[in-house]
Structures are given as C-alpha cells and as structure tokens.
Amino acid sequence: MIEYYLGIDTDYVVIGLAGLVFLLIIVMLINAVRQRKLRKAYEAFMQGNDGKSLEDTLVERLNQVDHLIEANANNERDVDTLHRKSKQNFRKFGLIKYDALQELGGKLSFTLCMLTDKDDGFILNVVHSREGCYSYVKEIIGGNSIVTLADEEQQALVAALENEG
Questions:
Q1: Quick check: helix, strand or coil at residue 88?
Q2: Is residue 2 in some structural domain?
Q3: Radius of gyration (Cα) for the chain, nearest Å?
Q4: Which domain holds residue 67?
Q5: Are residues 46 and 104 in the same domain?
Q6: Based on the number of CB atoms within 10 Å of its own CB, is 123 exposed (0-12), middle (13-18) or buried (19 or more)?
Q7: Final residue of a structural domain among 46, 63, 84
Q8: Of 83, 95, 141, 145, which residue is least crowded by CB atoms under 10 Å?
C-alpha cells in the first residue's frame, strides 16, 4: 500500500527504519554509559572522607564564612574605635634637657612637651637645683600656650609640633 502511494518499495522503508532503530539504540547505549559515569562521579563527589556528604561540608563552610564576615565587621568597628580614641592620646613629644643653674652641671633639668594630634596637651618643666626639684605644668591648646614660655619650653613645644608621632 505504501508502495502504491509513495512509489517506494516497502523493503527499502523497512531497511531504513531498521537502520534508524539501530542508530537510536547506539545513541541510547552511549547516553547510558555517559549517565553511568556521571552517576559514579556524582556519588564519589558527594561522599566525604568520614562519610560526610558534600552538602554537610558546604553548609559547614558557609556557616564559617558567615562567622568570619561577622568577626571581620567586629574587627573593623574595633579598629575604627581605636583610631578615634588614639587621636585623643599623646602622640607628639618634645624633650629638652638643660642646666637650670650653671654651677650644677649634668643637665639634670628638663622640659617635656606632650601633644595630641590636635596639638593639645601640656609642657612639664622640671628644674633641678641644690635646694630641691621644682616642677611646673603649662597647658597647650592648639599648639599655643596662654602663658609665656621659657626658651627651653618653647624648644620642647617646637620639637613636639615637628614630631609626627
């Protein structure tokens, strides 16, 4: 009947269909082999050393990453806090040793200037004499003193202002 309508011998149609079925069987076998290899690779990938699955390992690592992100955020906050507070600390220093009285020698007197980043702080002047040791403190605001400074105190202030900490 097909031969009558199409003008093709049925033997050729059967041989063509048999060849097509044979080709499809070969493609199916190739896909089955590939699927088996993929399945073995997947099962090996999902098995851990101690029987842990990959999913458990991934969940554990993601939890560790979350913990590290949180710890990093805490560290950044701490560093910012320390940076802010360090600006209030004395970071600039100037020290001048001198002889208050020429007859004593040894440069036992000194002037110490301590300043913050904003050039606020104090000057400590310690004068050593035969009768004793006297100390004086003068406040520094913005790199200046409202009280007149002695030469040694001015030198200590300049040294501290030039010191970048």
A1: coil
A2: no
A3: 45
A4: 11-84
A5: no
A6: buried
A7: 84
A8: 83
Cα 20 to chain centroid distance, Å, stands at: 64
17 and 79 within one domain: yes
Quote the distance between the C-alpha of residue 78 and its chain's center. 12
Q: What is the DSSP letter of 133?
A: E
In whole angstroms, give the CA distance from residue 126 to residue 137: 9
Q: What is the total count of domains within the chain? A: 2
In this model, does residue 51 exceed pLDDT 70?
no
**Nearest alpha carbon to residue 113 among 146, 136, 87, 84:** 136
Q: Over 60: is that where the pLDDT of 61 sits? A: yes
Give the contacts of 93 (CB within 8 A, at least 6 positions apart): 112, 113, 114, 115, 159, 160, 163
| Whether residue 62 is found in the same domain as residue 104 | no
Please give the model's pTM, rounded to 2 decimal places: 0.55
What is the chain's length?
A: 165
